[in-house]
Design a protein that fits this description.
3 domains; Beta-galactosidase, Chain A, domain 5
């Protein structure tokens, strides 16, 4: 990305943030947020992305399904007792307004439901000190809420029940002034960008905030410089966030164009660089690879973002800065996480899965990682990040990267080395990581070879170092794959719904089957199986050789 042309002073923004924090402590923050009531947006702009009608109907009936958790409070949802933090963040972010809009209904149903819920939120917020609620007024949630209100402005103030005008404008003014104080300084990773985008959109759409636009765009430009790596991969290394951030940027670029405002070059550049990497992360079924807090997603939604991005770059074979490798031959597609965990503040979504891989053939997934639960709080959220939830090697039932209690990657983090060669259509990759070197004295080395015809994938997983260490090499299977072990337990037969057969041959470890859970599909959890290859390191370490080959029909 080109150097930032008109980035605001980082020191100046930090001083504004410090001032905001001091004002909160002293009980004076309401004065910083006070100001004249802004006028309505210059134009009513529709949400560029569609919602889920089923979720919208549930909301209208009083069932609030946010972050994989359902709450059915009596009365105001903002008074929901014992709601988990993830549910609250999604509820206060109001992105679900697009679900209500998608639900439609007769007459003014969607508007009445939306206005009633926003009215309840305004009443709830009026009982709090301005900006005091740590979740509702966090930078990212506020930015998301501001954008949602602006995208559905006509639904919130129109129709026969439209009486929110003055109240919602007063609240919008306070929220934008709040973002003006904290955007770019509060929040981690993609959350910081979310807050900035809220400030940019408000400054673009509401005439009273136009003077803030140049500074807001400067904040966005600086954040994109940090968060989009040179190869176009988002700094979180998450395919899901690659998609979601790019979707937000595409929608904002369209808004600039629709309002006949000059599109910032940082938006155009970021979208053009991110699109090929988003294509990189797709399997043959159109969904996303399951790395770092990612589910498959909806193929049509990904197609829509890429189509509207109008970025022609093809999927690369590798993302050296993001730390991913892709082996493609014929219909066989192998995606490997060959990178180290991201650094703070982009590591809160990272999984402990160095050298994990996924394999698909055509539109059918064969070997997968477990994915990410819709429920973002609790035990599943921790389990899905473990090394054991991925198709890679684990040692002594311990994560290859330390995951701290605060959800970040701790001091023990793997560093990786990758070498790639391609000759006459064949691809060979040699990778290693040292995540187990400090606690157990071993390093993991994974070699992959994909033959030109795309029906023969071979690998070797080596553990080099201290003897006497137990290890498990896991191949998690997609729920639609049927598996059976052959009589000598040195091979397994995999069958896909299309009738395609694959034989996995193994030497150097004991093979067995175990239950597994798939968190990547439309259902929250689905039972599946995993192939386990277990052993103990000897004086020369351990070497597990395996080959995945397509069975030819006779």
């Amino acid at each position: 990305m080109e150097p930032v042309a008109h980035s605001p002073s980082l020191i100046g923004q930090e001083l504004r943030y410090i001032l905001a924090r001091l004002a909160r402590v002293m009980g004076l923050y309401r004065y910083l947020l006070s100001g004249p009531r802004p006028g309505a947006p210059s134009r009513s702009i529709a949400d560029p992305w569609s919602g889920d009608p089923a979720l919208g109907r549930a909301i209208a009936s009083g069932r609030y399904i946010f972050a994989g958790t359902t709450q059915t409070p009596q009365g105001s949802p903002w008074e929901a007792a014992d709601a988990p933090p993830g549910w609250l963040r999604e509820a206060h972010g109001f992105s679900w307004l697009r679900d209500l809009a998608a639900a439609g209904g007769s007459g003014d149903d969607s508007s009445r439901s939306a206005q009633a819920l926003v009215g309840l939120w305004l009443d709830w917020d009026a009982t709090k000190k301005p900006g005091a609620d740590r979740i509702a007024w966090s930078a990212a949630v506020t930015g998301r809420r501001v954008r949602a209100w602006l995208n559905h402005w006509s639904m919130l103030i129109g129709g026969e029940s439209g009486t929110l005008g003055p109240e919602i404008l007063n609240s919008l003014g306070r929220q934008v002034r709040h973002l003006d104080m904290i955007a770019g300084a509060e929040g981690d990773g993609e959350e910081r960008l979310t807050a900035i985008l809220g400030l940019v959109q408000a400054s673009l759409m509401v005439p009273a905030f136009h003077p803030r636009l140049s500074r807001a765009v400067g904040l966005m430009e600086r954040e994109l410089t940090y968060s989009i790596l040179p190869d176009g991969c988002h700094a979180t290394r998450s395919p899901r966030l690659q998609f979601e951030v790019m979707r937000d940027l595409v929608g904002l670029r369209e808004l600039f164009s629709e309002l006949q405002a000059e599109v910032p070059i940082c938006l155009v550049t970021a979208i053009d660089r991110m699109a090929p990497v988003l294509r990189f992360f797709r399997h043959g079924d159109g969904g996303l690879a399951l790395f770092h807090d990612t589910r498959e997603g909806i193929s049509a939604d990904i197609d829509g973002v890429l189509g509207r991005a109008d970025a022609k770059g093809r999927a690369p074979t590798r993302c050296p800065h993001g730390g991913f490798e892709r082996l493609v031959s014929g219909k066989l597609n192998v995606i490997v996480d060959a990178g180290a965990p991201p650094g703070a503040p982009y590591d809160s979504h990272a999984h402990a899965a160095p050298l994990a891989m996924e394999v698909s053939y055509g539109a059918e997934r064969l070997i997968v990682n477990c994915g990410a639960s819709k429920v973002i709080d609790g035990d599943w959220a921790k389990a899905q990040r473990s090394t054991a939830a991925h198709s890679t090697v684990g040692v002594e039932d311990t994560n290859a990267d330390e995951i701290s209690n605060d959800g970040r990657i701790g001091r023990r983090r793997a560093s990786t080395v990758v070498e790639r060669n391609e000759t006459d259509g064949a691809v060979w990759i040699d990778m290693s990581h040292d995540g187990y070197l400090k606690p157990f004295g071993v390093t993991h080395r994974r070699r992959l070879y994909l033959a030109p015809e795309g029906t023969d994938l071979r690998g070797e997983d080596r553990l080099e170092g201290t003897e006497g260490r137990t290890f498990t090499l896991r191949f998690h299977l997609h729920p639609k794959v049927q598996v059976s072990l052959l009589s000598n337990h040195s091979a397994a037969l995999l069958k896909t719904p299309s009738g395609s057969g694959w034989r996995l041959r193994v030497s150097g470890a004991e093979m067995s089957l175990a239950d597994s859970i798939y968190l990547g599909g439309p259902q929250d959890t689905k039972r599946t199986q995993q192939i386990l290859l277990t052993g103990v390191t000897g004086p020369e370490g351990a070497s597990v050789k395996w080959a995945l080959q397509r069975e030819t029909k006779r």
